[in-house]
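Regression test attached.
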Amino acid sequence: MSTAHTILIVDDEAHILQVLSLKLRNCGYSIETAVDGEDALHHVKTNPPDLVITDVQMPYMNGLEFAEALSKDSSTAHIPVVVLTARGHTLEPSDTDIPNIRKVLSKPFSPRGIAELCENLLKDTPRQSAQSRGAA
Amino acid sequence: MKTQVRRRVFTDPISISILTLTTLAIVVLVIVTLKSKAHEAAAVEAMHVARIEAEEATGTLDSAKIHACIDRTHRRQVEAVFDVLRDAVIVIDAHGEVLHVNEIASNLLLVSTTEAAGKPLDEVISDHQLVSTISDARTGLPKEGRQYEQEITHNDTTVAYEVHLQSVGQKDDAMHAVVTVLRDLSREREIARLKSDFVSKASHELRTPLSSISAYIEMLVDGDAKDEGTRQEFYEVISTETQRLQRMIDNLLNISRIEAGLMHIDRSQVNFRELVERSVTNMKPQASEKSLEIHTQIADVDLSVVGDSDMLYQVIVNLLSNAIKYTPDGGRITISADTDNLTRSLHFSVSDTGLGIAPDQTEKVFDKFYRVENYRHVAKGTGLGLNLCRHIVDTLHGGQIGLESTLGMGSKFWFSIPSGQMQRKAA
């Protein structure tokens, strides 16, 4: 059984998914990917992650709606969310004022910087996803 | 002496006639300069009154009446000029009474021009801040006037105005007046909002390929691509994303130049058939990769038009490229070109068996940066290609472009451009 933290990356740009997945896998994380908020919610229910990195502008359900949906569900409210957006300059602080959002980053981004952020956010976090899977 | 001469001149019936004709000529001149029918009607009325008064003056031969008549006529001319303006104008005298409100101000203040005249300012204007500012201006204004912005609520709608106050005559002069001009800033604000929205969208769309380029380069620098195959894949991503960025910048510049009327187009007799055939030949490899069939139905008629060959080629390639991108593997694309003798135009269309577009999105697909929601996963685009096509067809060639589509049943993009010039030449 893997001891790595699981990170769910949500973006409708395939290149962003690919580059972040590779970087974070190289850092030892287990990676799940989704292409929109609805797809991501499905992933969270079947395989709860320890951390979510999500884009904002996506079809069907955008990243902020997805983060809010996680925060309103007691079984997923504890999962920290990192928002990665190309629209950072147009987002008002109130837009991202959702309890589980830990950081809002603007594109272009540094994969190295994202890896460091994930390490900081997960260093004191037990693998809750594994626990919940075990409990299930 | 001078007065006597003037009196003699004005009491002379011939001079009176000249004066009458001159007055009428001035009023007619005002009419000529008036653009709107409403203003024209006001000036015609002014002319009519002037004529009656001039006739009265002729009858009495009273110079005081003639002077008063001239004053009234001049005043009406000035008022007629105010009424032509698109800004609201309010004129008050030294005592704070309204001398004139023009038609725009009359609509804004919900008071007729005649009702307003002679009333104290605060009986005409309900906005206390505006009353206070205009009243205060009577006691003195800088030479260049005073300007500020203020919101005024009118018919439950709040509109921002630029208020410009200017003194006429000296403070202690009987002629002293304060002219207030209110310019509606709604259109400027709307243009500023659209600009800001455009910059925001452009910034977002440009950042997307830039993010990929920047991230992949950093991965290469950090040695995250462990083998040669992965490195090659990264180089290809950087290359294609750079090309995408380049296309977006080119499209943005072209759209911007067309919108500003700066785009130079090389009009010549274009062999449209050759353009279609060249497009199909160049796009066939991409279609073959997805096992798409391309059928051409090009009518056996003269398909030459007057236009810019490179730009028309760009439109054909763009429509064909979209059909290839958004049609699932094994689908069919049909290209047709024909002339319409009734409308003297050339008609071109690209039909596909692709995803189709929902009715509420068919109008929006030609907007800048608009991306059909369920297409994002299928292929990448700049969100500018169809907008550029519309500009090339509509703005530069005087044609029309459109879309017929049923969700899940495919789409048909078409355009038509006038071929009249070519036909006249042939005739």
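Expected vs. actual: identical. Strands of chain A lie at 6-10, 30-34, 51-54, 81-85, 101-106.
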